[in-house]
Design goal:
By secondary structure, the chain is of the alpha+beta class. The chain has a domain of about 70 residues. Helices cover about 40% and strands about 25% of the residues. The longest helix is centred in the middle third of the chain and has 35 residues. The protein is elongated and about 90 Å long. It starts with a helix and ends with a helix.
Length: about 325
């Protein structure tokens, strides 16, 4: 439902109050921190890497949202000042609406009092702009070259993001609704970062297991159970084994796998275990495939389509940006 000009001005006044800035900043930090802490606790207690990845992604998104708000809040403050203390100039504003997948991007172009052209993005609140040239009132404040606030017949707008000193051209054809170049680039970067993180985790696990295999303490464990294993998280097949430490402590653990090698063992059979001398809980069974470089590279290669696809998205987005420029 569209708002009248006075209603839009009231919304602008409330949104630009210092208390509103503080509430948003506090709420964003609190929500992000709570979700990240919850995911990290889930990772700690459930020992599942998915929660760690999710925590990093939520933290990055929360930080990005906060940075976006902090960088744009000065424009909102200037727009509020232009409601009461301004120099009014009648002029024309050019509006371009770019239709994307599920949302629109809005851009405005004006010519200032010195004859310079300015282009900036904006976010309409309570009205629906359309592409074209429209009569408008440009409101200037001291210390800002571009208009801090623009009033049209149907809505108000102000810069959301740093204006660029250039003219805004009307689109030759209407947008086809395809994903904008920035969307492809963002998606590609996310896929590349996720792939890099995946490779770092797999390589770190290989290095850890290799170190234990080469430098760890070797002991002989006893198989306690063979076959179906049930835990709080899942069910699988494998072994339950136990080994003793020199200080008298007993370590009991499980080994689950889906290739059927567990069928080679019987209850009471010996099995060799390598453990870290400073942390016996970090141990692995003597299995060449555990620390095999070829197996590690094979697992890493399984995610190869993701960086390739991400790189293709980034290149495609950059090419589209160059064509638009």
């Amino acid at each position: 439902m569209s708002k009248t000009i006075p209603e839009q001005i009231t919304v602008l006044r409330k949104a630009s109050e210092p208390s509103s800035f503080a509430r948003f900043r506090t709420g964003c930090l609190a929500a992000t921190s709570a979700i990240v802490i919850g995911l990290l606790l889930a990772f700690y207690f459930l020992d599942h890497g998915t929660y760690l990845i999710a925590a990093l992604m939520v933290g990055a998104m929360g930080f990005g949202l906060l940075q976006d708000f902090v960088s744009d809040s000065p424009h909102l403050t200037r727009a509020r000042l232009a409601l009461d203390h301004f120099v009014s100039v009648p002029a024309t504003v050019r509006i371009v609406v770019e239709v994307n997948d599920g949302s629109n991007d809005y851009f405005a172009g004006v010519q200032d009092r010195a004859g310079n052209h300015w282009t900036f993005p904006f976010r309409p609140d309570g009205w629906s702009p359309r592409t074209g040239d429209f009569p408008a009132e440009l409101r200037y404040i001291d210390g800002t070259a571009w208009p801090a606030l623009i009033l049209t017949e149907t809505g108000i707008l102000h810069t959301w993001g740093k204006p660029k000193q250039r003219a805004l051209a009307l689109p030759a054809v209407q947008s086809d609704g395809s994903t904008p170049p920035q969307g492809w680039i963002f998606l590609g970067v996310i896929m590349l970062l996720a792939s890099l993180f995946w490779c770092a985790v797999i390589w770190g696990m290989y290095q850890r297991d290799s170190h234990i295999m080469l430098s760890g303490v070797v002991v002989e464990a006893e198989v306690l159970k063979v076959g179906h294993l049930r835990s709080e998280r899942d069910e699988s097949n494998g072994l339950v084994y136990r080994f003793n430490l020199p200080d008298g402590r007993v370590i009991e653990s499980t080994w689950s796998e889906d290739k059927g090698r567990w069928r080679e063992y019987r209850v009471g059979d010996p099995i060799r275990v390598h453990y870290h001398p400073d942390d016996p809980e970090r141990h692995i069974l003597e299995d060449p495939s555990v620390s095999s470089l070829s197996a590690t590279l094979f697992v890493m290669a399984g995610g190869l389509p993701f960086p390739l696809l991400g790189g293709a998205f980034v290149v495609s987005g950059m090419r589209r940006l160059k064509r638009k420029a």
